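= Paired protein data =
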Amino acid sequence: MNKYMFLGAGLCVAMVLTSCGSSESAYKKAYLKAQQRTEAQQTTPTVTTPAATETPTVTPVTTTPVTETRIIDNTDATPIRTERVEVQMGSALKAYSVVVGSFQLRGNAEGEVQRLINKGYDARLVYSADNNMYRVVAASFDNKPEAAASRDQLAQQYHGAWLLYAK
């Protein structure tokens, strides 16, 4: 009986000692991979210079100012965001839209669109490539006052609802 207990205890100790050890090769592989990444980041591309006989052609640079926010008919000081969007699901957008949600995952956005449709809204899913976000539009209008009124109504249920002017 003592032999079996001693043998069982020995097997348990052996299993504990061998199972806790980590393989050195895994650490080595991770180290080599990290070293290759840092070497790739440290290398700089070679720059070739034109031959001495070539004359460089210089063209004037013209800059065009880029504005992200464009205010359209903002006499009532209602904030509006301007984005370039594509309709992914639903009917076409009108000039002013009420956005009630923004999602990075399309599936989450589609679920919110479906909830709005079930509540009776003409919801749409649009994609903003500028921000890499899916926007859930609850309603779309031709004029700003109607859109602002709808946004105020929807803001009771969807805190943070905002107006979008589609480019």
